[in-house]
Amino acid sequence: MRKAFQIVVFVIVILASSSAYSQLDDDCGYTFSNNHHRYVNCNPLPTLDSYLHWNYHPSNNTVDIAYRHTGITSSNWVAWSLNPNGPHMIGAQCLVAFVNSTGIPHPFTSPITGYTTMLQEGPLSFGVPRIAAEFRNNTEMIIYATIELPPGRTNFTHIWQHGIVSSSGAFKAHSMAPQHLSSFATIDFATGKSIDTSSPGGGVSKTQRLRNIHGIINVVSWGMMMPLGAMMARFVKVFQPLNPVWFYLHVTCQTLAYLLGVAGWATGINIGSRTPGIVRNVHRNIGITLFTLATLQVMSLGLRPKPDHKYRTFWNFYHHSIGYSVIALSIGNIFMGFDILDPEKKWKRAYIIFLIVIGAVAVCLEVLRCFVVIRRKREASKLPQTVNADNVA
């Protein structure tokens, strides 16, 4: 009886252990091919629909990993890397995989030594005695590898990415959307602890927060207040009872827009200094041009001739040309910023609706303005002409 009881207990323990092991293996709800390891640990990564599975072997400080990247196609490359030096692109030791021209997944290692890397194949700073890749269901790439960790270390920054493979086989740069720029975390292979280091507590990173602030300030200042200020000067001044109220409204609105715009421009400079490897040449150059033109516009107010001055016509032409150029460049740069920042589509749609509304209002006010100006000219033509006494015979 006692022996039978021991056998029952033994079977229960075995089944419980098997169940626990299976539960750990299915932590991410995934079953691997039979010819690969069962992975005790799994972490769903915070961005890019990716997962990291691993087994750590303390006896020789090695780790077997399976990196899964879902939601991709055969025209994508994927990469997972460790960077012993921290959350940086330079120094990352990458495991890369893509589907080659024969339709077979090709894995390789690639150390990153600069921001202009093309993910060239090469040895890493630590050993990788085994690497393989599997492309499943035409939507998921899996990189399998055994990594010989540096002596005495189990905690690292890891980074993951995906990009496009061109028709010529060249690796194109990954997207600069927020989810790509925040695809890094820390991982401790011994304890299983993983921390999203893109920001404290897994929220928005400081750099991403700056990007959001930069976008909001510039949309409000350059993209909304500047056009509204121009509309005040164009349409309000035609109503004589509002003279010179329109002028002060125009100056106040444009000055506030300029000050906010300078703050937005400064945040852009700060973002550039934080991300030296990410250069948005066109967006940056338009921003510098806007700042320069707007500064000239503000400075030129001190040189504004009186209404009856002979150079007033030239000044008006300069003032209007610079002003409308700033507005046109601002709107174009804002849409470029939307593409870079890649926020929820509702924000871009909201700005488009704003432009449509003020555009429709501007058309209506322009018609009203023309009507008022024409009527005023007709009334002026009906007034008796003043006769010069010197010309009377």
Automatic annotation (TrEMBL):
Q: What does this protein's record comment on cofactor binding?
A: Binds 2 heme b groups non-covalently.
Residue ranges of every copy of the DOMON domain listed in the record: 48-163
Identify the keywords attached in UniProt to this record, alphabetized. Electron transport, Iron, Membrane, Metal-binding, Signal, Transmembrane, Transmembrane helix, Transport
Q: Which cofactor does it need?
A: heme b
Supply the source organism for this entry. Castilleja foliolosa
Q: Which domain of life is it from?
A: Eukaryota
Q: What does this protein do?
A: May act as a catecholamine-responsive trans-membrane electron transporter.
Q: Where on this chain does heme b bind?
A: 214, 250, 283, 319
Q: Where in the cell is it found?
A: Membrane
Question: What are the protein's GO molecular function terms?
Answer: metal ion binding
Membrane topology is:
Multi-pass membrane protein
Name of the protein? Cytochrome b561 and DOMON domain-containing protein
